[in-house]
Amino acid sequence: MNRSGFGWATLVLGTCLSWASHAQSTGFGGTVALSSQLVDRGQAITASTPILQGDVTWTSPAGWLLGLSAGTELRAPGQLAEASVQVARYWPLSGDWQMQTDLLYYRYSGSARTRAYDRAETGIHWTYRDVLTLGLSAVRMFGAPDGRVRGAADLDFHWPLPRHFYLSAGAGIAQIPAMPCRAYEHADSWRDLEYGRPYYGCERHGSYRYGHAGLIWAMGGWRMELERIVTAPHMRRQRGAPGAAPWVATVSWSF
């Protein structure tokens, strides 16, 4: 589960810090969170509506982590909006640096465009003093018609402030499959949009940029976040897709 908005807004990079802190002991832990929207690398997965999320993790002294997470819209509690499975391995490189590799699987429900973000992903992340994290990822999107592996790079920054506050900021770039911008809304799947049904005025973009900035307050197991989400304009204008709200708020409790 994402530690920055709980909508996978900065994806695995936020979890990097918490995973590393637990890697020295064996046990189970988890988080429950309420967020204003589910966002994945700057892309809105749900409409701007409250999302209840939870995750459970198991860690070992050797630095292994196994995790499961899921989220649902409060207005439709019987249907999962997203689910994920993750396997990670953490190594300390020095007193200041640590490294993590991981393998993740993401599953989304909803519209055909949303389900097109279902994917498997592997990545490597370097963290400096729990302040700066750089991540590189290889992504296989199951909804893409060409089957290519695509790349993503993310930079995440957390700076401690007085009274348990933290300044949070991040930026990233990700490759995306080609997809139509103005397709008939009754298409049933990404493949229908790309090949099966007519569309017009199609634009193709090989990559897009995204970012976030905001404040975090954390004490004990409690955490509150407010972040400004920024996404490339051509990704915000996709027809038939929910738009990412400019601000995402989250309250969470870890145990």
Topology summary:
Layout lengths: L11 H11 L4 E9 L3 E2 L2 E2 L6 E9 L4 E10 L6 E13 L4 E12 L3 H4 L3 E10 L3 E10 L7 E12 L4 E11 L14 H7 L10 E13 L2 E10 L1 H4 L10 E8 L1
Can you put this structure into words, describing what you see?
With 255 residues, the chain is mainly β. It has a single domain (12-254), classed as Beta Barrel (Porin). The protein contains 4 helices and 14 strands. It has a 12-stranded antiparallel beta barrel. Strand 4 (51-59) and strand 5 form a beta hairpin. The protein is globular. Residues 1-23 and 178-203 have low confidence and may be disordered.
Kindly summarize this structure in a few lines.
The chain contains 4 helices and 14 strands. Helices cover 10% and strands 51% of the residues.
What summary fits the major beta sheet?
Answer: 12 strands, antiparallel, barrel
SS field, number of helical segments: 4
Q: Which CATH first-tier class would you pick?
A: Mainly Beta
Helix content: 10-25%
Number of strands: 14
**CATH fold label:** Porin
String of helices and strands: HEEEEEEEHEEEEHEEHE
Any idea how many domains?
A: 1
Stretches where pLDDT is under 50 for at least 5 consecutive residues are 1-23, 178-203
Per CATH, which architecture?
Beta Barrel
| Overall spatial form | globular
**CATH homologous superfamily designation:** monomeric porin ompg
Question: If strands are numbered along the chain, what order do they take across the biggest sheet?
Answer: 1-4-5-6-7-8-9-10-11-12-13-14
